[in-house]
Specification:
Elements (H helix, E strand, L loop, with lengths): L15 E5 L3 H13 L3 E5 L2 H10 L4 E5 L1 E2 L2 E2 H10 L6 E5 L4 H9 L4 E4 L4 H14 L6 E2 L2 E2 L11 H11 L4 H8 L3 H15 L4 H9 L2
Length: 211
Amino acid sequence: MTENFYYPSYLNRDILIHILDADAATCEALSVLFRLEGFQTSFSVDTAGFLAAIERRRPDVVITNIRLGKDSGLDILKRVKTMRTGTPVFILEDQPEVDLAVLAMKAGATDVVTKPIDSERLLNGVRDAVRENVHVGTVEGGKRNVEVRGFAQLTPREREVLQLITNGQSNKEAGRNLGISPRTIEVHRARVMEKLGARNTADLMRIVLTS
């Protein structure tokens, strides 16, 4: 288990974590948490500050609130993903927002953590992402190549459907892409979830993103 894995803090010294949250106290608390583990940290309380900071140096991990005043953490997530660097992005929620959490996972978030923050869970998640460099394959042409335990059980069509789902396409969009009906996509999607042991779409995204 992760909590029993010895992870020397000196391995973190070249890793920069950038925290983006409108609440300065959250930024400062997380900055202290990760600095104690040997990470480098920087933080911003607004989108402008974040964008300026990443121009100076791209972070190795991003932790952003899903709500940033008039801006959205989902936009930040998508912006980071367009860099095609495989940077893990953790999403913070001030309160549970299931629909937004699902959108975040579909867009490539590594995890969604609701306040009050479980610091051990977040810390372990960041350690895992840094240590194992956990991604869904490599990014090619803006699309993720899906590599998941249990993937071999899927039929060629189910693999195609999973690929499109994890690239953020709706049933309608995936159906149009493959030349089949949205209902058929839904059937394939249900079979994919069953074979991979996913209870819902958000669970499916977590399985894919952490496998």
